[in-house]
Amino acid sequence: MVFSSRLKQLTEYISKDSGVLINSEVNRFYFTGFKSSFGYLLITESTVKFFTDSRYAVDAYVNIPENIEVEIVDSMSCYSLIASAVKKAGITSLGIEESYLTAREAQVIRANFGTQLKFYDISPIIASMRAIKSKDELSAMKASAEICDNVFSIIVKKIRYNMTEIDLAIEIEYQLRLAGADGTSFDTICAFGVNSSKPHARPTPNKLEKGDMILLDFGCVKNGYCSDFSRTLAFFQIKPELKRIYNIVLGAQRHAINAIKAGMYTREADSFAREFIKANGYGDEFTHALGHGVGLEIHEAPVVSKNSDEMLKNNMTVSCEPGIYLNGIGGVRIEDVIIVEDDKVTPLTSSTKELIIL
What we know:
alpha+beta; three-stranded antiparallel sheet
């Protein structure tokens, strides 16, 4: 089973007297396939235990893989019980998820586990594991991306004069659900006119007018995996400069998609789009990274930016989202999640990127 192989891979980093404690919901799901708002996964060289409370008792016993021992605990006393299990296993060093622990949780863990136990951060190891997707994960991500394609084809027919950004955001999220999404992967972005110059604009009561750019950025979750998708449209007409930056952004994304492949560093991947935009006179207006990893979370490893130095590997899934934002005028972003392969990348979404003027 896939979860057994993941646990086996993680135990390769665990010595005889060490263990790993997983507290985050996302990584508990990654290693068990079981979703719960409360739980801890204790992994040692020889045993794996899943601690949760009575709310999940029935489902945990049925759905958690047989090689994982389930223990139902009271949430108030779980730390002392886990500490006892750690002591019984003879663990002297424990990997914890510093990327997910709050300061309070870290304090409680250290208070319960004693001063003799050494802690180290397991987060980077798990992040590197999750960055490379299995066939099943890629299949789930394709299903999530397909929903975005389908919803986009519906949404372009529903955009109308005087509708608000909030109206359109609600319609997108409704259509995502109708198409089979389990939920949204992030807060939907719908930005009209000058608001499209804000990369992460929040939907407002702003009404759609002739000549507005329409920046859409949305995604969904399907079977635990996220999608991320952006397109920019024009309503009735488009100003010459906005048409120019649209073509530049489209050219930048195409150039990056044609050039990126496994084996290169993330800063190099970012440079393909960034240098294209800079050469066309808008380098200062591309204000964010080219992309980020997408999977169980909408933002995960690796980061594809001019300041990152990670190597792209086969079966990583990252967003490719160049943009140009003209303050007080409007902006353009085009985004697809791509699968990194040995000699190319493959976009997960296939919606047209040619300029649509509604």
